[in-house]
Design goal:
Elements: E1 22-31, E2 51-59, E3 65-70, H1 74-92, E4 98-103, H2 134-156, H3 163-170, E5 177-185, H4 191-203, E6 209-216, H5 228-231, E7 234-238
Parallel strand pairs: 3-6, 3-7, 4-5, 5-6
Antiparallel strand pairs: 1-2
C-alpha cells in the first residue's frame, strides 16, 4: 500500500483495486523496555532486539481526521506532511477515486501548486482550483456538506452505516472519496465556516469525506469554537521546536 518513493518502479507498480483501510504518514520507534512487562524476567525469553520500527497510520475507520498543530517554522513541516498524505491518498486508493478540496489562505495556493497538474487530467480531481479567500472557503465547505447529504440520502439511507458498507455490497466504489485539506486554520475562516469544518470532520467519514487540517497555534480561534471538537477521533500531531523527527515514508 505504501511503496518507497525512491526505489519503487511506478511504471510497473500495480495500482490498488480496493480502498485502503489506513494511510501511513510516518513511522514510530517502539522500545518494548518502556512497555509494562515488555521485557521477560527470564533471560532465555528475552529477544536480542528490544526496539522496533512501526508504521504510523491514520486509520480511516477509527481516526479519520489528521490534525496538525504548529507555529512559526513548524508550519512548513506541517505543510509537507499534508502534501505527503495527499500523495499517499492518491496511491493507496483506486485510480480516479479521490477528489481533493484544498484551502490555502496563507500560501495563496502555492503550498499545493504541484497538485494542480491533476487538473490537466480532470478538474474534478482538484475541485478546479485551490481556494484562498473567506467567501471561497465557505462555498467549498457548503459544497462538501451538500455532497455528504447526497451520499446519506442516495446511498446510505437507513440501510448502511458507512459508504464502505455500501461499496462492499455494490462491489464497486460508488462515489469518489473526498479529501478536505485545510492549511493554516483558522485564517480566513468565518465562525460559520469553522462550524462547517467541524461538521465535515465529524460526520464526513461515514460518507467517504476525510479531513487533513493544519492549525496555526498563534492565530486566534473563531468565536464559539473549541479545538477539542476537531481533536475528537483525530490523529493529532503537535509540532515541537528543536525535536528531530523520523523521516516520513
Amino acid at each position: 500500500l505504501f511503496p518507497d518513493w525512491n526505489t519503487t518502479e511506478f511504471e510497473s507498480w500495480p495500482a490498488p483495486t480496493e480502498p485502503a483501510p489506513a494511510i501511513q504518514f510516518g513511522s514510530v520507534k517502539l522500545d518494548v523496555a518502556k512497555v509494562k512487562n515488555g521485557i521477560p524476567l527470564d533471560e532465555r525469553l528475552r529477544a536480542a532486539q528490544t526496539t522496533m520500527q512501526l508504521p504510523a497510520l491514520m486509520t480511516l475507520e477509527e481516526h479519520p481526521v489528521l490534525l496538525i498543530s504548529a507555529e512559526e517554522e513548524g508550519r512548513r513541516e506541517a505543510i509537507e506532511v499534508l502534501q505527503l498524505m495527499m500523495l499517499r491518498m492518491l496511491t493507496a486508493m483506486p485510480p480516479g477515486k479521490v477528489r481533493f478540496t484544498i484551502l490555502d489562505p496563507v500560501g495563496l495556493g502555492e503550498n499545493f501548486a504541484s497538485f494542480m497538474h491533476l487538473a490537466d487530467y480532470d478538474e474534478q480531481l482538484i475541485a478546479s482550483r485551490i481556494w484562498t479567500d473567506s467567501r471561497q472557503i465557505d462555498e467549498q465547505l457548503t459544497r462538501l456538506t451538500a455532497h455528504m447529504e447526497t451520499v446519506l440520502q442516495k446511498y446510505l439511507r437507513n440501510e448502511f452505516a458507512t459508504i464502505h458498507e455500501y461499496n462492499a455490497q455494490a462491489g464497486e466504489v460508488a462515489e469518489p472519496f473526498q479529501v478536505l485539506v485545510a492549511a493554516n486554520f483558522p485564517t480566513n475562516f468565518s465562525e460559520a465556516a469553522a462550524r462547517k469544518l467541524v461538521s465535515i470532520a465529524t460526520s464526513g467519514p461515514r460518507c467517504g469525506v476525510y479531513t487533513f487540517i493544519m492549525v496555526d497555534r498563534k492565530q486566534k480561534m473563531p468565536a464559539n469554537f473549541d479545538l477539542k471538537d476537531l481533536e475528537a477521533g483525530a490523529v493529532h500531531l503537535d509540532w515541537v521546536a528543536g525535536v528531530e523527527r523520523d523521516q516520513a515514508p
